[in-house]
Each structure stands twice: as C-alpha cells, then as structure tokens.
Amino acid sequence: MALTYDIHGPADARETVLLSSGLGGAAAFWQPQIPALTDAGYRVIAYDQRGTGRTGGELPQPYSIAHMARDVVEILDATATERCHLMGHALGGLVGLQLALDASARVASLLLVNAWSRPNPHSARCFDARLELLAKSGPRAYVEAQPIFLYPAAWAAANAEQVAREVDHAYAHFPGADIMRARIGALRAFDVDDRLGEIDVPAWIACA
To answer: What CATH topology corresponds to 1-118+190-207?
Structure first.
C-alpha cells in the first residue's frame, strides 16, 4: 500500500529531513515547523502513517513499530532519498530508533522529541486510561481528554481556543478505534532499551 507524503523545500537540497508524527500519525502535525526547516535549506518529507490521515487501509496484525520503520524505508525509496535526518515526536521518535537499528545506512541523524526506548509504569497508566476512555465513552471523549495527557494545565488553560481547535481537528480526522488500539498496542510493546548501544548515528534528545 502506498503511503501519502508531502515534499517541501528545494528539490536540489543536499540534505533531507523526514518528519515522523506521534500517536495521531498525520503529517499536518508538523505544519508549524516546516517553514523554518525549508528556509534553512532542507528538503522536508512529512507523511501520514499507515491508517492515519490520507493514508488509509488496514494494519498488519499484530502491528509493531518495526512495521512503521519499514514504511519509512518505503518512502525513502520512493523519493530517491539515500539518507535522512529523522525528526520524530513520541511514537515518531520510536520509529526513528527502530529505523536506526534496522537500516542505519538510511539515517544521517535522529532528533527525538518526547520519545522513549521502553515503556514505564506512568506511560502505561496513561495509555490504559486512554484505551478505557475509547472503549467506554467513544472517540469524542478520547480526543477531548488528549490535552490532559499532552499539555501542562496552565498552558492548556491559557490557550483554550487553540486546544479546542486541536480537539475538533483530531475528532474530525480520528482514524477509528481499531486502528488507534493497534497503534497504542505497538507503543506498549516497544522495548529497545538493551539495544541502544547498537545505534551508531548522532542523536539529539528533547523532552518536556
């Protein structure tokens, strides 16, 4: 299945940044960052992950971060991109770690934002709560609760209109309960903590 992606910036750029989104999976997440990257001279690829945004279709079962990393290789091949700087947020950062382990020759560097190498009890509790909301109260309650997990309370209160727009957008583009459960399952199963020493590309870690 072909994945949907957008290419921004100069076609003759010497370096490419590939943007990999978090749990929502859609390329639109990166709209605020793309102009700064293209202005800096990078060719930028942003893509909708399998089952999200404009990329439809069913997911392989059981779905895994390794599947998502193979999708990135498919995009790199389709765009004639030998290597990329992969910038990943949350789940997208996990995809970057997996890609660096499975196909390090395709990775020039990693920039990982709020990513992790193995689950911890706090993140597990957060995902359990999200799954319970989805099962018992449905997609609208699920997306309404997202800001509680994502943002500091003071920031969310001060930016209530922006948060409301994001919630409405997330609900309008919700990929479906089955796909979301499979994506959360892939997150929960991911654990490369004992393999981090195998990663031989530069990596920058950002967290908040």
So the answer is: Rossmann fold (3.40.50)
